[in-house]
Amino acid sequence: xxxxxxxxxxxxxxxxxxxxxxxxxxxxxxxxxxxxxxxxxxxxxxxxxxxxxxxxxxxxxxxxxxxxxxxxxxxxxxxxxxxxxxxxxxxxxxxxxxxxxxxxxxxxxxxxxxxxxxxxxxxxxxxxxxxxxxxxxxxxxxxxxxxxxxxxxxxxxxxxxxxxxxxxxxxxxxxxxxxxxxxxxxxxxxxxxxxxxxxxxxxxxxxxxxxxxxxxxxxxxx
Length: 222
Fold this sequence. Notes:
The chain is an alpha/beta fold and 222 residues long. The chain has eight helices and 13 strands. It folds into two domains: 5-125, Response regulator (Rossmann fold); 127-220, Arc Repressor Mutant, subunit A, CATH 1.10.10.
């Protein structure tokens, strides 16, 4: 089974259902968003292998969302959905750095080929390097120091992935507690981050990779 997760951002309900069915039938995991606000929340929670992004959305344009939120924050390929007549949108999207586009209406075989091609390109970038000696594979959920595996608890893996996926901003305690299944006021998440920091320092010789700012949350640097 293909263990690939795709974010589909499309406000047309019938088209959204059609595309999701096509992707699920081809063994992709799919998360849906009908607007940019929903898409932002999902991007903060998951590391996606690919984003299918409609150019026209109810709360803004896919082009603006890509330029201001996706382009310099996450390393995820984006395929724009655009009406065939909107040549300018396609050109602008590609000029901004988008990976691909497909016109509406589209052939399902063409969409699947574009998805496969762009996901294949991303696979080489699933490894986050914290130093020349330390790297974390977000797909295999494996931390290595000098090619040796460092044991992580399931929560430590979740925390690392959350920090990486929110590297453009601070990871708030609320989001941390929610993802770890903790009570809203719990300090357990803070304690687990402290232990992870200590492990990174002792076993990987990494100092200040995870930093905190009072009232904002935690941020990772790599």
